[in-house]
Design a protein that fits this description.
The protein has 338 residues and is of the alpha/beta class. The chain contains 10 helices and 15 strands. The strands form 3 sheets. Strands 3, 4, 5, 6, 7, 14 and 15 form a 7-stranded mixed β-sheet that branches. A 6-stranded parallel β-sheet has the order 10-9-8-11-12-13, sandwiched between helices. A two-stranded antiparallel sheet has the order 1-2.
């Protein structure tokens, strides 16, 4: 058996999209303990991949240097103590700390899920990171319950696409609001995802629109990826005893002078940041089980839709990263390993 494989690498360790290349001499991982060695069929792109490529993302100590946290493929072998229920040859998809941009990945069996025949390799590769992140934000951090109201920023992003569907079909939200950067994307959030209303942050005052739509009450939960430029607006639209969950800071992390934080006391607001990749295996495993229990049946029967924007051969990974950088997508970008 060869000790090397092909994997996407970065010239000089970090750099722009054009620094990506397929390295044919990458050491092939060996499964240890509860791990499985999976031959990768497809992997999904996530915004953290862009940050990691540029050297701006804190990589967990157990992660390999190879990019990528979600994938689909077939099990080739196991470590010494894998989770029961998996066999060599099983078709799976899953979440990893890194290493998915490769021919092979070693990943804990606790983070693998059997791929239903109803899902393609491309669709399965686009589920783990985005849907588990949405589940985490909605339930574990956001404590969402039926009858509550929610605002998903970046409504056409993969996590919010998942979150809007979860809010609608799994949680029976009283109302679901979203923001997006084009009228096309706001229509997508309403017409295809089922949001109650969506607002174009480029042409509308989204905070004012949310307050008008809720008769001034605001929303019980805000899920944000933008950070600095949305901080005041989030405080303005969150309801009394509401929760703001922040998953990113695309606009920056330092607040402008004059931000009014009085809502924290006046409305008893809870603000909590969260990430998935830095969580331990036991925490991620519980989220995997939640995904299997609550979401997987709805993928199979078609209730939940996996929106794939574009599929590339992995030799076009530079183009795939450049597409994500342009913020034009409505759904997942997938690369097939050939």
């Amino acid at each position: 058996m060869s000790e090397t494989m092909r994997a996407v690498d970065i010239r000089n360790g970090t750099g722009p999209a054009t620094s990506l290349f397929i390295n044919p001499d990458t050491p092939k991982p060996q499964p240890a303990k509860s791990d499985a060695l999976v031959k990768v069929k497809a992997f999904g792109l996530n915004r953290m991949d862009l940050l990691q490529r540029e050297g701006h993302y804190p990589i967990p100590p157990q992660a390999p240097k190879t990019l990528g946290v979600e994938f689909s493929g077939t099990i080739e072998s196991f470590g010494a103590s894998p989770e029961r229920g998996f066999q060599v040859g099983d078709e799976v998809f899953g979440l990893a700390y890194g290493g998915a941009y490769a021919e092979y990945i070693s990943v804990s069996t606790h983070m693998l899920i059997h791929k239903p025949k109803e899902l393609s390799w491309d669709e399965a590769a686009g589920i783990p990171e985005t849907w588990i992140t949405a589940l985490q934000a909605l339930y574990l951090v956001g404590l969402f319950k039926p009858g509550k109201t929610v605002l998903w920023h970046a409504g056409a992003s993969s996590v919010s696409i998942a979150g809007i569907q979860l809010s609608r079909h799994e949680s029976a939200a009283a109302a679901i609001y979203a923001t997006a950067g084009t009228d096309e994307k706001t229509r997508f959030c309403v017409d295809q995802l089922g949001a109650t209303a969506a607002f174009n942050y480029r042409t509308q005052d989204w905070a004012r629109e949310v307050l008008a739509a809720t008769d001034g009450r605001g929303v019980d939960l805000v899920v944000d990826f933008v950070g600095q430029s949305y901080f005041q607006g989030n405080l303005d639209v969150v309801a009394r005893d509401g929760i703001i969950v922040t998953l990113g800071a695309m606009s920056g992390t330092k607040l402008e002078k004059g931000v009014d934080i009085g809502a924290f006391v006046r409305k008893r607001v809870r603000f909590e940041g969260s990430s998935l990749r830095s969580r331990d295996e036991a925490y991620q495993g519980k989220l995997r089980d939640t995904l299997v229990e609550h979401a997987l049946p709805k993928f199979v029967d078609g209730t939940f839709k996996i929106f794939v924007e574009k599929v590339f051969g992995w030799e076009a990974v530079i183009e795939a990263h450049q597409l994500m950088e342009r913020n034009e997508t409505r759904g997942k970008i997938i690369c097939r390993v050939t």
